[in-house]
Write a structure and sequence with these properties.
Number of domains: 2
CATH topology of the largest domain: Rossmann fold
Strand order of the largest sheet: 6-5-4-7-8-9-10-11-12
Helix content: 25-40%
Distance between the termini: 98 Å
Largest sheet: 9 strands, mixed
Number of helices: 6
């Protein structure tokens, strides 16, 4: 009986001692270290999300909860949260990079995912898409951008109207209408015109319409004093690369 009581006392003392040691080691978290390719605003948003509630002690901090807070920001990727004794929480994450602006307030990633970012990015293309999904819009952009880059052309904006027709604005101020089908062929037709004619054209090109089944139309920027007959002649120029007359656009 005495031995049992002694064992009980020793066991209780061990439990109390272990608990006391746990409390002693469970130092309150007082420092967050955030690593990753983030802007200052994004780092501030991460810090605010993690400190919205008590972090607790270094041993009792709920790392899964902290990770879920960052995952809830939608743009955070590859999130890891670790402890570093005595009082530090280490946070590592990456940002899903925006490829273009989507409308007024959102961005779109390379994978076609919509992002709401705390920072703003101005030196990327803009998308104004009426009916297609973000994923489809990114597919179209990738195709056209790959073709345009062969001629050193950069796309400033990608647009789609209510009828599904696509158009581009380049950084050289040319607007190109492509329509809703045969985008690959029409883009190549435009580049052929650009390479053989437009690069050596002394007049400034304002608009190119490649929605015809054969050929393209070119609108030049017309000086105010140009004669009316010259204006009419410059409004629509059939491509020299087609033996057929211009057909209906779509």
């Amino acid at each position: 009986m005495l031995n049992r009581m002694l064992l009980f006392v020793v066991g209780a003392a061990a439990v109390i001692g272990a608990y006391g040691l746990w409390l002693l080691l469970d130092v309150p978290v007082s420092k967050l270290v955030i690593s990753g390719d983030l802007t200052q605003i994004e780092q501030a948003n991460v810090r605010a999300a993690l400190t919205s509630g008590s972090l607790g002690g270094i041993l009792t901090a709920d790392l899964k909860l902290l990770e879920s807070k960052l995952d809830g920001m939608h743009w955070a990727r590859n999130v890891t949260v670790r402890r570093q004794w005595p009082n530090i929480i280490l946070v590592s994450l990456t940002r899903e990079m925006p490829m273009a602006r989507w409308g007024k307030d959102q961005y779109i990633s390379a994978g076609g995912h919509l992002l709401t970012l705390p920072d703003q990015y101005f030196d990327i293309p803009s998308f104004d898409v009426a009916i297609s999904s973000p994923h489809r819009a990114m597919e179209v952009f990738r195709l056209l951008d790959q073709i345009a880059s062969r001629e050193g052309l950069n796309i400033n904006s990608l647009k789609q109207d209510d009828q599904g027709g696509w158009s581009l604005d380049f950084d050289n101020t040319i607007t190109l209408a492509l329509g809703s089908e045969q985008l690959n062929q029409r883009m190549h037709r435009f580049l052929l015109l650009h390479r053989r004619v437009l690069l050596d054209e002394p007049r400034s090109v304002q608009y190119v319409d490649a929605r015809y089944s054969s050929g393209v139309a070119v609108k030049y920027t017309t000086p105010p004093l140009l004669a009316a007959s010259e204006v009419a002649a410059s409004e629509l120029v059939a491509s020299e690369f087609s033996s057929n007359p211009l057909q209906e656009r779509h």
